[in-house]
UniProtKB/TrEMBL annotation:
Residues 24-353 form the Sulfatase N-terminal domain. The lineage of its organism: Bacteria, Pseudomonadati, Planctomycetota, Planctomycetia, Planctomycetales. The gene is atsA_16. This is Arylsulfatase. Keywords: Hydrolase. Residues 407-426 are annotated as: Disordered.
């Protein structure tokens, strides 16, 4: 069956890429709480995203990329190529007293490990949330030579990620640990770190892999340096409030601006033409967010209102932007096929001729769908797997089957949830249900370490 094959496909064999070509750099950008409805290139009308829209126009835009509904499981799957069921991160890591999970470098290997083993300079910045850094400082063991992250807590006290930010990782003086910068804006500092790592690798004439896990536009919704209100550390830090939604458009715009600055820096460093840029969101927009999006309809384009679905196993919670750009190499266009987060690792392995990972992976390379010469054809993915804690489901382009047995049609943006199908099914629907049931079982019994 195709569903089983998708779980067992090997990576492209080493040496299959053009050996005479220089190895490309990779900049992997992950926005925080960003569904497809937030970007203009996906029909979004609520926010200004000109830089990402230009990136999409010059690269490949995927319309059906799926994450998990929360950050930690999505990040672990993205970096390992393995489902939450297998990589040990089925839930959000946010409370050191109640959640003991962490991405264990003794058990798991990330795409950064593969890049470092292949001779790349590796770095990461922004939001980690795959361990409590004050307890388990794991980024280096998971492949990152240098890193700067926002620590959720320091010595039991919550920290700020935006105004008056706190940091954990490689300090400017060469030591490693926590520090703060009262007069700074956190996203600016991480953006500067990414640009410095680009310069560091370029000066050393080393290829680089940089994982840029942006903090924006996750709550607390607070002013940015471009907002009319003065930037300050708000009361939301102490009260756990999400802040004020009036600042969300400013935060989305500032996220877009930082991406544009980094792309401009790549160009100034002479690295843009040989850099694969991958942009994604880690899950859908927050449940407190309502956005507008233009979608096609039988009578022409129409505007729909899309409530955010973060934390839900719906398209609003798991359907996220995916843009891949490599100027002059990736063919511009739109891909409407299915992609899930585990697919990014084998795709980058194909594009950059990386060594095979030691663990079996769930992902399937989509490098052949980018128009890059020399990439081996792969069977099209016909379903994706999504997980939140113990809840799991598989989704095709037309239907969803949960691990609790609910089988329902996929709904469009802004439409009311469809009731599970019950009673006798047509032969075609029964065949679809059986296929998705086999996929759920295949993921569960996948031969991990």
């Amino acid at each position: 069956m195709v569903s089983t094959l998708l779980l067992a496909l090997p990576l492209l064999a080493a040496g299959s890429a053009e050996s005479s070509a220089p190895r490309p750099n990779v900049l992997l950008i992950l926005a925080d709480d960003l569904g497809v409805e937030a970007l203009g290139c996906y029909g979004g009308t609520s926010y200004e995203t000109p830089n990402l829209d230009r990136l999409a126009a010059g690269g490949r835009r995927f319309t059906h990329c799926f994450s998990n509904p929360y950050c930690s499981p999505s990040r672990a799957e993205l970096l390992t190529g393995r489902e939450p069921l297998h990589n040990g991160i089925p839930r959000v890591i946010f409370d050191p007293q109640n959640h003991r999970e962490f991405l264990d470098p003794a058990r798991e290997q990330t795409v950064a490990n593969l890049f470092r083993d292949a001779g790349y300079a590796t770095a990461a910045a922004g939001k980690w949330q795959l361990s409590f850094l004050t307890q388990r400082d794991t980024p280096h063991a998971l492949g990152f030579d240098r890193s700067q992250f926002w620590p959720i807590q320091i010595e039991g006290s919550r920290t700020s990620r935006f105004a008056e930010p706190s940091f954990w990782g490689d300090r400017p003086d060469g030591t490693r640990g926590p520090w703060s910068k009262p007069d700074a804006y956190g996203p600016d500092e991480y953006n500067a770190f990414v640009q410095a790592e680009i310069d560091r690798a370029s000066t050393a004439e080393e290829p680089f892999f940089i994982y840029y896990a942006m903090l924006l536009p996750h709550f607390p919704w607070e002013p940015t340096p471009d907002s009319d209100d003065p930037l300050k550390r708000t009361s939301s830090l102490a009260t756990s409030s999400k802040g004020n939604l009036k600042y969300l458009p400013d935060m989305v715009a500032y996220m877009d601006r930082l991406v544009g600055q980094t792309l401009s820096h790549l160009e100034e460093a002479g690295a843009l033409e040989n850099t694969v840029v991958v942009f994604l969101g880690d899950n859908g927009c927050d449940v407190g967010v309502t956005s507008k999006r233009t979608v096609p309809g039988p009578d022409g384009p129409r505007i729909v209102v899309v409530p955010g679905g973060k934390g839900t196993l719906t398209d609003a919670g798991t359907r996220v932007p995916l843009i891949v750009s490599w100027p002059g190499t990736v063919d511009p266009g739109v891909d409407e096929g299915l992609v899930e987060f585990s697919d990014v690792l084998p795709t980058l392995a194909d594009l950059c001729d990386l060594p095979a990972p030691r663990n079996p992976i769930n992902g399937v390379s989509f490098a052949d769908r980018l128009g890059v010469p020399g990439m081996e054809d792969r069977p099209d993915r016909t379903w994706v797997h999504i997980q939140d804690k113990s809840r799991r489901q598989v989704r095709s382009r037309t239907h969803i089957l949960t691990d609790r047995g609910a089988f329902r049609p996929v709904i469009g943006p802004g439409e009311r949830p469809a009731a599970p199908l019950s009673g006798a099914l047509s032969p075609e629907l029964q065949a679809e249900r059986n296929r998705l049931a086999a996929a759920l079982q295949a993921v569960e019994t996948f031969d991990g370490p």
